[in-house]
TrEMBL record:
PROSITE patterns xref list: FAD_PCMH
Residues of the signal peptide: none
Record-linked InterPro entries: CO_DH_flav_C, CO_DH_flav_C_dom_sf, Diverse_Substr_Oxidored, FAD-bd_PCMH, FAD-bd_PCMH-like_sf, FAD-bd_PCMH_sub1, FAD-bd_PCMH_sub2, Mopterin_DH_FAD-bd
Keywords: Oxidoreductase
Species annotation: Streptomyces ochraceiscleroticus
Protein name: FAD binding domain-containing protein
Keyword Signal tagged: no
Domain of life: Bacteria
Length: 325
C-alpha cells in the first residue's frame, strides 16, 4: 500500500472541498482492497462516513430515496424497500457476506470496480487500470467476462447486484459537487468502456453521491432478483436477472428487466420489456421474451455458455415474478 493522507469530513461542504484533492471513502470494502493490491494509489482519502446521508424516505407517489451512506444490510432490511421494491432487497441480500453488507454503503456499492483478475493483477495489461496498455482478458481466460457492451479495449463485467436492480427500475443518482446539485439517470451514470474504459462513472471531479432514488411505478408491482453463480454464497454472478412487472386485468401493463454478470455495465433489456408489454402471461411468452435478452451479444472463447445461460436466467425469473402476480 502506498502512503496517503487521511481526513474526516464533518459536513458536506468540508467533504466537497477535500474531495477535489482526493478520494471519498465510507465503508471502504472495495477501495481498501484495491489499495492493498496497489491497483488504486490515492494520495488523499476523505472519510465521509459521518455525513447525514443515511435516510430511506418514501417519495411522492410511492418511490424511494435511499441515502448514499445507508449500508447494504440496512437497505435490505428496511420495511419500505422490502414492501415496495423486493428486487432491491433480494439483490442486496445475495451480495457479498453479511459482514461486508454491514459495512458497505449503497453509494460505494455502485462505485465498486470490476473483479476482473487482470485488472487486479498489476503485472497484466489492463486498459481500465493503465490506459493504452491493452486488454489481457480478450485473449486470456475470460470465462467470467462480459458478452454485452464490450469493446476492443475492455470486456470486464460490473460486479454489483443491486446496480442491476437499479438499472431495471430506472433509478436516478443524486449528486452534489462544486457546481451544485444534479441528477443523473442510472442508465447514464455507469459508463460503457468504449475506448476509455478507465472512465467508469459520469462524475466530475469532487462530486459526491448523495442518494439513489427509485421512481414511483404503477401498482400492483411484483419484482424479484435471480442470481446464478458457481456456488451459493459469496460469489459473483455468472448471470443474473432483475424483473419488475405490473400486471392488471390479466395483461402486462409495464415491465422492467435488466441483467447482470454479462455486461460491462448492468444491462437494461428494452427488447425483452417491449415484447412483454400488452401481452398476457404465459409460458410461451416468457420463453419468447427471454430470447431477446442476448441481442447484440459478443461472446469470447471461454464464456459462450453465457448466451444460453442468460436466456434461461431471464426466462426463469420472468416466470417466477409473473406467475406470482
Amino acid at each position: 500500500m502506498h502512503p496517503f493522507t487521511f481526513t474526516k469530513a464533518s459536513d458536506t461542504r468540508e467533504a466537497l472541498n477535500a474531495g477535489r484533492r482526493g478520494r471519498y471513502i465510507a465503508g471502504g470494502t472495495t477501495l481498501v482492497d484495491l489499495m492493498r493490491e496497489t491497483v488504486e494509489r490515492p494520495e488523499t482519502l476523505v472519510d465521509i462516513s459521518g455525513l447525514p446521508l443515511r435516510d430511506v424516505t418514501v417519495t411522492k407517489g410511492g418511490g424511494l430515496r435511499i441515502g448514499a451512506l445507508v449500508t447494504m444490510s440496512d437497505a435490505a432490511a428496511h420495511s419500505k424497500v422490502r414492501s415496495l421494491f423486493p428486487v432491491v432487497s433480494e439483490a442486496l441480500e445475495l451480495s457479498a457476506s453479511a459482514q461486508l453488507r454491514n459495512m458497505a454503503t449503497i453509494g460505494g456499492n455502485i462505485m465498486q470496480r470490476t473483479r476482473c483478475t487482470y485488472f487486479r493483477d498489476v503485472t497484466a495489461n489492463c486498459n481500465k487500470r493503465e490506459p493504452g496498455s491493452g486488454c489481457a482478458a480478450r485473449e486470456g481466460f475470460n470465462r467470467t467476462h462480459a458478452i454485452l457492451g464490450t469493446s476492443e479495449s475492455c470486456v470486464a463485467t460490473h460486479p454489483s447486484d443491486v446496480a442491476v436492480a437499479f438499472a431495471a427500475l430506472e433509478a436516478q443518482v443524486h449528486l452534489l459537487g462544486p457546481g451544485g446539485e444534479r441528477t443523473v439517470p442510472f442508465g447514464d451514470f455507469l459508463l460503457r468502456p468504449g475506448s476509455t474504459p478507465n472512465h467508469e462513472q459520469a462524475l466530475t471531479r469532487g462530486e459526491l453521491i448523495t442518494a439513489v432514488e427509485l421512481p414511483a411505478l404503477p401498482r400492483p408491482l411484483k419484482s424479484g432478483y435471480l442470481k446464478v453463480r458457481d456456488r451459493q454464497s459469496y460469489e459473483f454472478a455468472l448471470t443474473s436477472a432483475a424483473v419488475a412487472l405490473h400486471i392488471s386485468g390479466g395483461v402486462i401493463r409495464d415491465a422492467k428487466v435488466a441483467a447482470g454478470g454479462v455486461g460491462t455495465v448492468p444491462w437494461k433489456l428494452p427488447a425483452v420489456e417491449k415484447h412483454l408489454i400488452g401481452q398476457r402471461p404465459s409460458e410461451s411468452l416468457w420463453a419468447a421474451a427471454a430470447e431477446k435478452a442476448t441481442e447484440g451479444a459478443r461472446p469470447l472463447k471461454h464464456n459462450r455458455f453465457k448466451v444460453d445461460l442468460l436466456e434461461r436466467t431471464v426466462e426463469r425469473q420472468l416466470r417466477t415474478v409473473g406467475d406470482n402476480t
